[in-house]
Write a structure and sequence with these properties.
Strand content: 15-25%
Radius of gyration: 28 Å
CATH architecture of one domain: 2-Layer Sandwich
Largest sheet: 5 strands, mixed
Distance between the termini: 91 Å
Number of helices: 4
Shape: elongated
Length: 160
Amino acid sequence: MKIRHQHQSEKIELEMTPMIDIVFQLLIFFIMTFKIVDVEGDFNIKMPLASVSSGEMEEELVPPMKVRITAGGGGQLASVALNGRTLFGGFDELHTEMMNLIGDDAQIQESAEVEFDCDYNLRYENVIAAVSAVSGYRTDSGEVVKLVEKIKFAAPRPGG
């Protein structure tokens, strides 16, 4: 009995046309489902220069303000304090205080600086609400009024 070995090599080819069709279908799907939304917040981050200039330092019109935000159970907002004074109205009172301190003076707006000291387990939405309260507001006509552009964060720490 003779066993015949077939040494025919069958070449397997991959069809590229269906793969290209699927890629285009996915591309069209993602383009059609893309939703353009408004920018969540305009955070103008100005990094410090590598070296301090030899010129005179400008006198600050408003001293740096410190906002302490503590978290309660589950990361919920427990309290808000501005320069050591507890604000019982939360972020609304914080916004009002910022408007009273800064007002419409462009020089004060440029020199104003806020440092946030937040608890480690504070929910992110509370931090964004605080940043929104101090950074500015939108008028009834849709015009954006900026209050504070210099915002920095202290290292997060546990509540207490």
